[in-house]
Amino acid sequence: MSTFPQSLNPVRGGFVLVNPDNGKPKKTIPFQYNPDTLTRTLQVQGIGSEPGDRLEALRLKGPPHESYKFDAEFDAAEEPGKYPDGLFPLLYALEASISPTYDQLWSENDDAGNGRLEIAPAESPLTVLVLGPRRVVPVRITDFSVTEEAFDASLNPIRAKVSVGVRVLTVDDLGYQHKGGRLYLAHLQQKERFAAAVDHPVTDVGVPGI
What is the pLDDT of residues 151-192, one digit of tens each? Predict the structure, then answer.
């Protein structure tokens, strides 16, 4: 777990669950400690399936499939009195983004009992991963694993590590007018601003020209 001197006032990352209908935040779940490491994987769309496919060699069919993996650690003992039920509220708030609600499940059951053959799956909140002001991305949680490491006298977990895998949602997934689609486009612009700051002559890589 990452800790910093209080004087540095570090930015705290976390998840924000957003109402998909009106784009307003429903719940904010900050990390108690920022992840020590984060693994990003990008899979390019559009590379030709076979070498020698000249029509497809340089084409990009859309944004790359991007995924993140990281661990978030929580310790109720660090803030005594704040967690009377241990870490249950925090852990279950995270799980709420990947599980239909009680009401949604009963609604689906009622629809099935009334003979409706086509039942639309329940829609979850839009999950936004915030890792500082320069990385705010709409995501879908794909992997979620909790290791509960310590408990209080009532067996409430008081220390836990949450291993999370997410896939970044793009305009291909959400469209251009969706709140998540606009967040993705803003994230893409931020990446392009960073990339534009890199400007080296070709001689810096040891060749006179290309």
Answer: 999 999 999 999 999 999 999 999 999 999 999 999 999 999
Spans of all domains in the chain? 16-48+57-100+121-197
Kindly give the parts of the chain with pLDDT less than 50: 4-7
Q: What is the CA radius of gyration of the chain?
A: 22
DSSP string, the chain: -----GGG-----EEEEE-TTT--EEEEEE-SS--S-EEEEEE-S---SSTT-TTTTT---SS-EEEEEEEEEEEGGGSTTS-TTTTHHHHHHHHGGGS--HHHHHHHHHHHHTT-S--PPPPPPEEEEESSTT-EEEEEEEEEEEEEEEE-TT--EEEEEEEEEEEE--HHHH-SSSHHHHHHHHHHHHHHHHHHT----GGGGT-S--
Q: Residue 100: what pLDDT?
A: 86
